[in-house]
Amino acid sequence: MNEQKQHLLRALAKGVRYDGRALTEFRPLKVELDISRSAEGSTRVLLGETDLFVGVKLGIETPYPDTPEDGNFMVNAELRPMSNPEFEVGPPGNQAIELARVVDRGIREAHAIDTAKLCIKKGEKVWSVMVDVCTVNDDGNLLDASGIGAIIAIKNTFFPKLKEDNTVDYEEKTKNKLPLQKEPIPITVYKVGSYFIVDPLPVEEKLSDARLTAAITEEGIVCALQKGGESQLTTDDISKMLDISIDKAQEIRKKLKL
Amino acid sequence: MKSAKYEKRFDGRDWEELRPMNAKVGIIPRADGSAMFQIGKTTAYAAVYGPRDLHPKFMQNPRTGILRCDYNMLPFSGHGERVRPGGSRRSKEINLVMQNALLPVLDLTDFPNTVVDIFVDLPQTDAGTRCAAITAASMALADAGLSMKGLVSAVAVGKVGDKIVVDLNYDEEAFEGGAADIPVAVIPSTGEITLLQLDGEVSKEDLMKALEYAKRAANKIHELQKKALKEKYHE
User: Fold this and answer.
1) B contact set with A (CB within 8 A)
2) Quick check: B76 and A57 CB within 8 A?
3) pTM for this predicted structure
4) Is this prediction's ipTM beyond 0.85?
5) Residue span of the structural domain in which B63 resides
6) Tens of pLDDT along B172-192?
7) CATH of domain A3-256
């Protein structure tokens, strides 16, 4: 085990983090709404010094053949080279794709968006909801910040006007909000040695052994999971990690007054 | 060349009036230098990384560091439909003209074989994006502590109908009676021009007049850039 890891473990044994927080304490969370006039819904999330934009664009597409009456939904993540010297220009890498898919699943599997209400004409035209997460400054925990940003942006998305020929007038927004049924929040718990921490700094992310992201609904139901990291977890670990996720999800929900 | 009458600006501004502006330096802690510049509903975030190692090796220049720009409209920042992520022909050209707009004030000879990367992301746009990008980038370069002989301030001027105007917005660019869009970058300390493009039709006389407008507008932007830099380094 390298020196850096031992150093971190010694600190965690005393119950402190590099920035003085407790093991399961989040950094201050700040949310700004409507940061982009061209998006149908948008937000900026500041979690400590982690900073990112989430924008929602609505469009019209043909539905998938197996769900002819459901709108389409997709989350995409852009880990912008602006936000971290290790991120490069070019198509999304593994980290960006995993992040986007974990955020996507949390919202999709909770049936957060009532996709049946996005049908314009069965089998021909449905609304598509495209959520883009774009990082500005990566100071750790992009996963949770993205998931929180995504649900807030979706919650504050208004339909643009639908013209008579079923095309979109983007210059005119209606007062109709995207139909939202649930508001899942993903919380990632990291395992470092025998300790569990949340909301890691980049150095803590790098030194961690494993992580578990759990998307939690307002009823405390788990609606998506992703185990990450190279080390294994015991069922006892998973049980403890889920307790933390459920607890933290409700804490953040309260803070955000969701 | 006939041009339709443009009586009054769509948003009520005077012909030489810039939209409300906002500038901030040091907004991206992980970067070596960073800045935000907003003009109307066009917002640009710029981050500078470097001088740092440059790969592939054949791109290295043993005489000087090189400058590399990456201009990027975020997927939800365009008019109308979502913009597909990834570079377009347009953004590649902007990368090149941005580099040329900023290089004249920059001296990277102390850093041979390295690169200075500038990344500019725009979360919302209402015309004048390359100018906002250059204005933000030049503040970010200064924030990174690189040696510069001055800042670069950029603004679009142009002709809307029969009027010469400063800082066109999207509606003016799309004016049915004809519009010429002229992005200009100026080194305000010398009055020299480092970016000049034009889309539309304009007489030489009008063009020269528009350039004078651009210089005056650039001076106003320059004042704001200096103020933003001083705000960060005052404490």
Assistant:
1) 27-31, 34, 41, 43, 45-47, 49, 52, 70, 72, 74-82, 85-87, 117, 119-121, 123-126
2) yes
3) 0.94
4) yes
5) 21-230
6) 999 999 999 999 999 999 999
7) 3.30.230.70
